[in-house]
Amino acid sequence: MSQLLEIDNLYVKYGNIEALHGISFTVGQGEIVTLIGANGAGKSTTLMSVAQLPPPEAPKILSGDIRFKGKSIVGMAPDKIVADLHLALVPEGRHIFGNLTVEENLKLATYARKDGMDEINRDYKRVYELFPRLNERRKQRSESLSGGEQQMLAVGRALMSACKFIMLDEPSMGLAPLLMYDMFRTLKELNEEGMTILLVEQNANLALKFAHRGYVIDTGEIVAQGPCEQLREDPEVKKAYLGG
Amino acid sequence: MDFIIQNILNALQWGSFYALIALGYTLVYGVLTLINFAHGDIFMVGAYIAFFVASWLLGPVIGLDPTWTFVLAIPITMFLTAGVGVTLERIAYRPLRRKGAHRLYVVITALMCGLILEYGNLACLGASRKKFPDLLEKVIWHFGDVAVTNLKVLVIFAAIAVFIFLNFIVTKTKIGMAMRGISYDKFAIPLMGIPIDAIIVFTFILGSSFAGLAGLLFAMSYPVLEPFMGALIGWKAFIAAVVGGIGDIRGAFYGGFLLGFIEVGVVSIFPSTYRDLFAFSILLIILWMKPTGLFGVAKNTKI
Asked: ∠ CA(B155), CA(B138), CA(B235), 5° rounding?
């Protein structure tokens, strides 16, 4: 399997604290990879580093490299990551534009697309198919949506940016169990169609059932890695993250 | 009756100037939550640019007639004034934004930029006032005792056209959506593949070019230019934007016209020295009753 994304010995500062101390991992084309770990372990920091979000809101890369298809993307403009590499981040807390309608949120995500109206319309259709609730609420201001619907919108927006690689930061947060399973079923469906997924989750049980491979992060370092079946059986991982 | 109509027209004209300037404050505030205190001086620079452009077009090198000069001066002035606004953003505000400076420092920077524009003008051009050339042949229409000049109609028309245009940009276009999006959540804008600096530059282009238009029309209506002409009118337009609800385009327009009506209303009853005292007192009472402004929302939903 070719490596699509390679994180190589990455040191990152977030605020005044060194948040990542030399982590390395890879994501292959078409894979679902998950990063699990406790709150504050550095999972979100990792995703924001890959997305190249600028400080001060986001982390500052001190050393190490992030490569996409073999080329370093450190220092690339964050909008180019989305527009040119088709690598999208669904951030923690969703960050939808609450003052815009559902439809406008989706439309805004097509801002930098260079393909034609046909492809864009096909993607609208697809998003509304995957998330019928969004279709029902098309004209509503998105701040009036429920938490689950906002998460759908956040994922839908990423899809509208024509991403082929999606990074998800805590998509299960605040969702009722039923909606959560729905969301993961949809993500699985997208993966089967070829979407590469990098998932950050605190709900390690769920993440390790969903992903192919996993990495366990603890205070800025990777402490365990392997296929998910293997991690699920690892006594250390079980004890620390899966509730025994 | 004629007296009232005459005053309404005057109020609309003054309101138009305030509104055209106020929207520049409101656009930049909506996108950056920055009060661009240099904006009144950008209006002043716009008037001077209009003066030089008009003199150049009328002058011996080009030698256009006044009407064509007017037609060409509009886009040239707007373009050059937009350049001034964008330059300010590029050399003064953007470096601070990159460093994550606190808003207070950015506002202070804006104030200083305004002063630099004023005193830069004074240093380069001297204290003598400039007389703006006549571009439009003055036409006065009489309806009973009401006299309307073509220029007055033009000013009011320009303000309304700009309002309709901006409303369209902000509500219907993708770049307008991005502007509204930034005001709600700046963090997520690059995640949509949108270059945030491009949106900010576009915002400055809009605000400054309309300040340039206001400068041109103002110079035609009150043809004496001096370096500090933007200070008071800028403050008033800013207050109008706040009273209307800063960050909201409708707020800037209604606030601007409201101020125009209050001022003209006061002058039509009291001696003109009472104008600003009364006008600001009334605005103070409005803010006291509705601190977020007429169209303002308490939440960070702007533009």
From this structure: 35
* Structural domain harbouring B53: 2-229
Which domains, ranges and CATH numbers included, belong to chain A?
3-241 (3.40.50.300)
User: What tokens appear for A28 in the block?
Assistant: 């292959």
Q: How many alpha carbons lie under 13 Å from residue B41 in its C-beta half-sphere?
A: 20
ipTM: 0.92
Q: Would you call A100 an interface residue with chain B, using a CB distance cutoff of 8 Å?
A: yes
A115 shares contact with chain B (CB less than 8 Å) = no
CA–CA dist A4, B102 (Å, integer): 39
Asked, for residue B205, whether it belongs to a domain, the answer is: yes
With respect to residue B255, please indicate whether it lies within any of the assigned structural domains. Answer: no
Asked, for residue B9, whether it belongs to a domain, the answer is yes
Q: How many CB atoms lie within 10 A of CB A132?
A: 10
**Global confidence as pTM:** 0.91
With CB atoms and an 8 Å threshold, state whether B185 touches A57. Answer: no
Over residues B6-22, the mean pLDDT reads 95
Mutate one of A108, A150, A151, A164 to test the B interface: name it (highest B CB count within 10 A): A108
Tally of structural domains, chain B: 1
The answer to whether A196 contacts chain B (CB < 8 Å) is: no
Q: Does A240 touch chain B (CB under 8 A)?
A: no
Angle at B146 between CA B140 and CA B152, to 5 degrees: 50
Q: Does residue B118 lie in a domain region?
A: yes
Nearest C-alpha of chain B: how many angstroms from A90? 8
User: Is the per-residue pLDDT at A244 higher than 70?
Assistant: no
β-pair partners for A197: A32, A166
In chain B, what residues touch A82 (CB-CB under 8 Å)?
Answer: 190-193
| Residue A73 in this model has a pLDDT that exceeds 70 | yes
